Amino acid sequence: MKLGRNDLCWCGSHRKYKSCHMAFDEKIEQFRDQGILVPDHSIIKTPEQIEGMKKSAAINMACLDAVAKEIHEGMSTQEIDDIIYRVTTEMGGIPAPLDYQGFPKSVCTSINDVVCHGIPDEEEILMDGDIINVDVSTIYNGYFSDSSRMFLIGNVSEENKKLVRVTKECVEKGLEKVKPWVTLGDMAQEVHEHAEKNGFSVVREIGGHGIGLEFHEDPWVSYVANAGEEMLMVPGMCFTIEPMVNAGAPDVVLDDEDGWTIYTEDGSNSAQWEIQVVVTETGYEVICY
Ligand code: MF3
Ligand code: CO
Q1: What is the dihedral of CA 33, 176, 271, 129, to 10 degrees?
Q2: Is 134 in a helix, a strand, or coil?
Q3: Which H or E element spans position 29?
Q4: Per-residue pLDDT tens for 157-192?
Q5: Pocket-testing residue among 94, 98, 116, ligand 1, by greatest number of atoms within 8 A of Cβ
Q6: DSSP string for residues in 136-171
Q7: What pTM value is reported for the model?
Q8: Is 238 helix (H, G, I), strand (E, B) or coil?
Q9: Average pLDDT in the 65-92 region?
Q10: Is the model's pLDDT at 2 over the cut of 90?
Q11: What distances in angstroms separate CA 9 from CA 2, 5, 15, 40, 82, one per listed residue?
């Protein structure tokens, strides 16, 4: 079904197509004709939806701020889960991981050689020298947000500090490449080049994702792709930048016992930072970190 120039735009703006998204759609078609993967209308967010996502993100960031204040050596990862559940529900949100495809807790806590999706446990105690990723995701009024941060416990080795710092820089460098009418590969190339320049590697099998009305939407986001590859970025797209950077080899293994925890295959440590980004007319807006 093709919209006429004077029909109402598909985006819900109540404006005529010709003065709203018509030029946008024509531009997308030019990229499609060149063989570039382009986004479907269903993942282009309206200004109202972006406002909804920002309210969700406010809860998500409050959770991470609370963890930042309370995290300490000797604490269990279950106590981190308790903080996330309390702050999220007090603010009217729902922890998105809870019962998500059977995930048993409200947050992912991934220590040292755990790459991602670690399950909080009262028997798992934070030790001096640990590095931990706390990955928080929130549903508020139907809108999803997702971000994660690293925390250093006690006296962390210089090598581990570097891994955590470089991984954050990877996100920042990738972010600078986010703008409309280039592809996600431009961002990904910055991410993995910075990791590799520092002697680290980037996990290939697990990526980021579109987000907003669902937890995981298109596109799937690689951090090992190169410039010009992967989906075209257009205004109104929202996705996560969340590379997993390993000190050793990029290979990962799944814990068959719990079905969730992902480890580095070689036992080296892994770090991850995650932000949620909206593509704007001129570049990007970070809405959750
Ligand atoms: N924030 C994580 C992600 O986007 C959440 C994983 S789903 C969970 O991949 F159930 F494990 F939490
Ligand atoms: Co995510």
Answers
A1: 180
A2: strand
A3: helix 22-33
A4: 999 999 999 999 999 999 999 999 999 999 999 999
A5: 116
A6: EEEEETTEEEEEEEEEE-SS--HHHHHHHHHHHHHH
A7: 0.97
A8: strand
A9: 98
A10: no
A11: 11, 9, 6, 15, 45
CB of 192 within 8 A of CB of 182? no
Is there a contact between 37 and 87 (Cβ–Cβ < 8 Å)?
no
Q: 199 C-alpha to center of ligand 1: Å? A: 27
| CA quadruple 26, 38, 277, 42: dihedral sign | positive
Among all chains, which residue has been given the structure tokens 């490449």? 177
Query: Is there an atom of ligand 1 within 6 Å of 200 CB?
Result: no
| 263-274 confidence digits (pLDDT tens) | 999 999 999 999
Could you tell me how many helices (H) and strands (E) the chain has, helices first? 5, 15
- Ligand 1 mean position to 239 CA, how many Å? 14
User: What distances in angstroms separate CA 206 from CA 43, 52, 221, 280, one per listed residue?
Assistant: 21, 27, 9, 26
Quick one: tokens of 207? 């990526």
Residues constituting the chain? 289
Paired tokens of 255: 């814990």
- Give the tokens for residue 283: 């570049």
Exposure on the CB side of residue 141, measured as CA atoms within 13 A: 13
